[in-house]
Amino acid sequence: MNMPMWHVEVPPELAEELERSIDGGPIVDDQGRVGIQKKLVARIDRLKVYIYSDEHGPPHFHVVDGAESGSFSIKDCTPLQAVGFPRYIRNIRRWHQKNKQLLIRAWDELRPADCPVGSYGE
């Protein structure tokens, strides 16, 4: 039995609020805390740039495009793993050159007090 679907337009800010909440990770308790914090640093066309709170060294950022993703060093944008979207590497490197300080601030903001990696440092 197919049920009719109703579509209701909502203000864009409501959808954006939900997207920000989902980008922050799943809520794990009744106080609204999330298990792993992540910060959406930027969007580059379809790509999303994230930094996560529970990371290993060296300081790095993630670029995600649907099912494809890659990790890059904050220091010099060197890929830390095989990257699934080589056609965007130049875009990512150019963006990194202009936004390295934004990445450093985001990395430092998300470090827990007991994080063994610590804040960014060159």
Describe this structure as you would to a colleague.
- By secondary structure, the chain is of the alpha+beta class.
- It has a domain at 35-110.
- 28% of the residues lie in helices and 20% in strands.
- It has a four-stranded antiparallel beta sheet with strand order 1-2-3-4.
- A hairpin with a 7-residue loop joins strand 2 and strand 3 (60-65).
Number of continuous helical runs = 2
- Class derived from helix and strand content: alpha+beta
- β-strand number: 4
The main pleated sheet reads as: 4 strands, antiparallel
Please give the radius of gyration in angstroms: 17 Å
N-to-C SSE string, H for helix and E for strand: HEEEEH
Mean pLDDT metric:
78
**What's the assembly state of these chains?**
single chain
Physical arrangement of strands within the biggest beta sheet:
1-2-3-4
Residue runs with pLDDT of under 50 for 5 or more positions: none
Specify the helix fraction band. Answer: 25-40%
Bin the strand percentage.
Answer: 15-25%
What is the terminal separation in angstroms? 62 Å
- Overall, the morphology is globular
Short description:
The protein is α+β, with helices and mostly antiparallel strands. The protein has a domain of 76 residues.
Q: Which secondary structure elements does this structure contain, and how are they paired or packed?
A:
Elements: H1 12-23, E1 38-44, E2 47-52, E3 60-65, E4 68-73, H2 89-110
Antiparallel strand pairs: 1-2, 2-3, 3-4
Provide keyphrases for this structure.
122 residues, alpha+beta, 4 strands, 20% strand
